């Protein structure tokens, strides 16, 4: 949203609600996936002539409808907690500068109560999801370890050699260039460098423990499948598409090893060019 939209009361309330919901569970300090998920590709620009035709060239109507859609999406997660007619009444009174039913101090008190309610609801949902994911993951791994070709390390990491390479193995201090696809045990894909058409490069000491350990088992040119328990993935702090205590599966191809940046020979930086005269 643009800055002027954020100044409306509803947009502020939406932002507060979203902030509460997203901050109810702590974020993991490591990347959300071995390589951070790429932002969704921008959709092609819509036909502006078609848009104008829908609103007969009324730009104010176009902007208003767009704002309504944004606010509606923002309120979607709390729709059971609010009365839309009351929201509209408060919005109209605030925009017109009329006297509102709640004073600013009273609104602050109500907001704090509402935030506490949302936080409690989010905490209960996270706990429920964490317990469900943990049980499903434990059951999956218990069966999977007896599958032909699956090996289990002392930490509990399970892996399968799809193709054994002939190159060197990386160390925990190395950076690796890989292609990978990550899925949950139900088959839901949450990240893939393959789909993006661009291999990922990252330091092994900066990713989840299951990756740090598993990648060191792979010679360059190998293709492995990792089955990573929640304790070696993101634990209770799994990001949105993954969720708390989720067991993860990764199909990984180790393309190359890159030396640590600190060990690289410093580049020779040319002196800056003199500023051009005006």
Task: Describe the protein in words.
This protein has 278 residues and is an alpha+beta fold. It folds into 2 domains: 3-22 and 42-125, no CATH class; 139-261, Chitinase A, domain 3 (Roll), CATH 3.10.50. The chain has 8 helices and 7 strands. It has helices spanning 3-6, 9-23, 48-54, 59-75, 84-96, 104-144, 193-196, 209-215, and strands at 150-152, 158-163, 175-184, 189-192, 200-203, 223-228, 248-258. Strands 1, 2, 3, 4, 5, 6 and 7 form a 7-stranded antiparallel β-sheet that branches. Strand 3 (175-184) and strand 4 (189-192) form a beta hairpin. The protein starts with a helix and ends in a 20-residue tail after the last strand. Mean pLDDT is 82; it is low at 1-33, 35-41 and 262-278.
Write the layout of secondary structure elements.
Blueprint: H1 3-6, H2 9-23, H3 48-54, H4 59-75, H5 84-96, H6 104-144, E1 150-152, E2 158-163, E3 175-184, E4 189-192, H7 193-196, E5 200-203, H8 209-215, E6 223-228, E7 248-258
Antiparallel strand pairs: 1-2, 2-6, 3-4, 3-5, 3-7, 6-7
Helix pairs in contact: 2-6
Short description:
The protein is an alpha+beta fold. It folds into 2 domains: 3-22 and 42-125, no CATH class; 139-261, Chitinase A, domain 3.
